[in-house]
Amino acid sequence: MDIKVGIPRALLYYNFYPAWKVFFNELGAKVILSQKTNKKIVDDGVLNTVDEACLPVKVFFGHVINLKDRGVDYIFVPRIVSVEKRRYLCAKFLGLPDLIRASIRDIPPIIDMEIDLYRGYNRNVDREIDRVGMIFTKDMRKIRKAKEAAIIAQNNYEKHLKSGLIPREAIRIMEGAKVVKAPDSGLLKIGLLGHNYNIMDEYINMDIIKKINDFGGTVITADMLKESDIEYGASCYPKDMFWTYGREMLGAGRYMLDSGIVDGVVIVTAFGCGPDSLIKEMVEKEYKRRNTIPILSLTIDEHTGEAGIITRLEAFMDLLRWKEVV
Length: 326
Description:
By secondary structure, this protein is of the alpha/beta class. It has two domains: 4-172, no CATH class; 182-325, Rossmann fold. Helix content is 50%, strand content 13%. The protein has helices at residues 13-26, 39-47, 55-68, 91-94, 96-103, 123-133, 140-162, 167-174, 196-199, 208-214, 227-235, 244-259, 274-290, 306-325; strands spanning 4-7, 30-33, 74-76, 79-82, 110-111, 114-116, 188-193, 217-221, 264-270, 295-300. The strands form three sheets. It has a four-stranded parallel sheet, with helices on both faces. Strands 8-7-9-10 form a four-stranded parallel sheet, with helices on both faces. The protein has a two-stranded parallel ribbon with strand order 4-6. Strand 1, helix 1 and strand 2 (30-33) form a beta-alpha-beta unit. Helix 1 (13-26) runs antiparallel to helix 7, helix 1 (13-26) packs parallel to helix 8 (167-174) and helix 11 packs across helix 12 (244-259). The termini are far apart.
């Protein structure tokens, strides 16, 4: 019988799920996803974390609890230190496995693979992947093949994102589904800034992408931009940002402003996130100083109501249409 590995549909799921799934599948394991975020998942997460935790962490806890009740043999909770050279991720990713173990009782064993690319892909990274692979097989050739397949899957996934797909669509395509992109000619182009775990989770953000589409807009995210576009935008600031995804938001926001590829920008941040509050302030300040492209800032938490999001978003889209007319 296949070993079942549970993967929470939260945090960096939207960034690396295709690679993770292929890696475990190649090792002979069956991947089980937690359900899509819903009220019970959020409530469970809130009840099992400290009040000071940000919304994405609370949601992640809820997804782990969801998997706990689904009969998996392991739950994959990576300890992600860095995903690129000379930059780090938020501290919540470093301590996530320990937080889970300390807060949730009677859960299956956690696979806490450490991902640290601060000094690039090196022997230590390779050894850590091998350590996890040996949970499933002692055949090093099989583990090596799983690593190579995961890298190929991740590269293909990122190509889909650069082609204009959002992560949800790209994941569906890689799993064999057919996704037809609607023509976007004549639609307002909306830059959607935010971490993928905030802007892609339909429940916590009230399905903001669908609402933008319904109001006559099409979204452009940081994932769709070239690396050189992000680099250009980030380099416009006097000091380098050492948070990978904060820098991505900052660079994408500045590039969208300078290039004029969007009619307006919506930035989504989570309440209680220190890095987000800083990034939001820096992006908003530049947009308001230039006063050429309107920006709407939305802060979400477990108490966010749909009515407020709809009202503000609809008014923002009306403003963009009025701006086009005048």
